[in-house]
Design goal:
single chain; 529 residues; mainly beta; five-stranded antiparallel β-sheet; 38% strand
């Protein structure tokens, strides 16, 4: 269920406070709003529901408003069984100015009218607690909320008081556990240490240090402690105040305040005035461990014989080398002996002593390598060993290793046990992709060369033209193939031919004709080694 002061209500409260005017809540409004999620947050900006969704309006009697504490007031709607029938999931309170002050979302609930003997009705009581600074003063409410609701106040107050008095019987006027709530100076600032304390039976707990700003020095710091109502509970409330002489007092609401000094602050330092007990655990344990001399305790005159320990020697010794049945070893002697034993064990485990080192293994072990590389060797720890591994020859079906092929093996192409590297695979390959160019295949393809070129714009008139290969052949030319390229047909036969006697570096080519000479290109192609 969500509940909150609306934005309009918040604004009205601010306006009333600024104008020192009173705030009056006039009515409760009950509505059944379709689709309202009671688990969601209240829409503080929303107006009151549409008139069709408002199921009941309850004018608030003056006596149905009361205060819980100066900052909390509560309003109560008490609707008898003669009212109904309607369902509601939205509750709001509205001021005399028709401003929606606060809203609550609830699961759908029923209000039924008593119609004997057909229907048994129900009474409905809904309380709306509004909390903001100065709520009691702004609303002018002077009635304690307990006077118009079922009053457990007296009973609860009695319980609180009995518990306070019981604590006071145990802890006295004030008791601070160790350094709890001790005022200290840190740098140029002052702070109160965290911890637990009891003042007049009221338990104070602080989980973190609290910054303190004293007035002009010298000054005395006091704890002002009270049991203060908060919502539906009563909690310990305390503050640090300063003054020369402070006494207990009751405030305007009749709440008793207890004051105890905790420190005197001066330029020279701080004087701690807290009554301190070295308590750091359950109180029963503190009593059991209490040190001191208690004359009525039997332990003052107890002897070893009384507790059947008369055979234990009186003498003690720290010397671990002492060998006497009339001397007891002290804890120091036992500690020294334990340290020596653990050091000896550590040296054995680490091998710092001979006993910690095995010369040989009880059972020699074989170290075996399997896979692409195989081999094994026995190891007993007596000396270093060398593992000689054998590489398994790789094949199409066997994972293993192989050597890198030589260029001769790559060119021969007959060795099936070596790897060919990219460098050897490409060895000898070269090319030139121009108008006159070549491609030379790798050495493992015998270095075969393809070459081409073009004799451009020459007369085809039985004249030979010399062509130089872009790259000289090494040994053999298998073919030279020229042809004629012309822009137009001519009416005569034209043929192209190469002159006998080509060399490894070039050849001669020309165009022949029957009766008519022409002009054209002679592209050519050759290959060889």
């Amino acid at each position: 269920m969500g509940a909150s002061i609306t934005l309009a209500g918040e604004s009205l409260i601010a306006q009333k406070q600024a104008a020192h005017a009173g705030l009056q809540v006039a009515r409760f409004i009950f509505a059944n709003v379709p689709g309202l999620d009671p688990s969601g947050p209240v829409d503080r900006a929303a107006a009151k529901p549409a008139a069709a969704n408002i199921v009941y309006t309850y004018p608030l009697p003056p006596d149905n408003a009361g205060y819980v504490n100066p900052n909390q007031v509560v309003y109560s709607a008490q609707i008898g069984s003669d009212v109904g029938d309607w369902d509601f999931n939205w509750i709001g309170i509205e001021t005399a100015e028709n401003v929606l002050l606060a809203v609550a979302y609830v699961p759908v609930q029923q209000k039924r009218r008593n119609v004997p003997p057909l229907q048994i009705g129900n009474n409905l009581t809904r309380n709306f607690l509004v909390a903001f600074d100065g709520a009691q003063a702004l609303t002018g409410i002077t009635i304690d909320a307990s006077t118009w609701q079922h009053d457990f106040t007296v009973r609860l107050a009695g319980i609180d008081e009995r518990e306070r008095l019981s604590n006071r019987d145990v802890y006295g006027r004030a008791c601070f556990f160790g350094s709890s709530l001790q005022l200290e100076k840190v740098g140029n600032a002052y702070q109160l240490k965290p911890g637990t304390a009891y003042v007049e039976g009221i338990r104070l707990v602080r989980s973190a240090a609290l910054a303190v700003v004293p007035p002009a020095l010298p000054a005395t710091a006091w704890l002002d402690v009270a049991l203060q109502r908060e919502l539906n509970d009563v909690v310990a409330s305390w503050a640090i105040v300063f003054g020369a002489d402070k006494t207990d007092y009751s405030d305007s609401l009749g709440v008793k305040h207890y004051l105890v000094p905790i420190a005197d602050i001066a330029a020279a330092g701080i004087t701690d005035r807290r009554p301190v007990e070295a308590i750091n655990g359950p109180l029963v344990q503190q009593w059991a461990l209490r040190t001191g001399d208690y004359e009525l305790l039997r332990a003052r005159a107890t002897t070893k014989e009384d507790v059947k320990l008369g055979n234990i020697p009186n003498a003690i010794s720290d010397d671990v080398e002492t060998n006497s049945s009339a001397v007891l070893a002290t804890t120091k002697a036992v500690k020294s002996l334990g340290t020596a034993i653990w050091n000896a064990i550590a040296n054995i485990v680490s091998g710092a002593t001979v006993v910690g080192k095995a010369t040989v293994l009880a059972t020699p072990r074989k170290i075996t390598v399997e896979g692409a590389v195989t081999g094994n060797v026995l190891f007993d720890g007596s000396s270093d060993v060398k593992l000689t591994a054998v590489v398994t020859q790789a094949s199409e079906t066997t994972v293993g290793g192989a050597k890198v092929a030589t260029q001769v093996q790559t060119d021969a192409g007959s060795d099936d046990t070596a790897y060919i590297t990219p460098k050897k695979l490409r060895w000898g390959f070269t090319l030139s992709l121009g108008t006159n160019g070549y491609i030379v295949f790798p050495s493992w393809l015998a270095g075969l060369k393809f070459q081409w070129g073009r004799v451009v714009s020459v007369a085809l008139n039985q004249t030979f033209y010399t062509v130089t290969f872009p790259l000289a052949y090494s040994s053999t030319i298998f073919h030279i193939g020229p042809q004629i390229a012309m822009t137009n047909f001519i009416s005569d036969n034209v043929t192209v031919l190469t002159k006998l006697g080509h060399t490894l570096t070039g050849f001669q080519v020309g165009g022949d004709h029957a009766t008519t000479a022409g002009t054209g290109d002679i592209p050519w192609f050759s290959f060889g080694i």
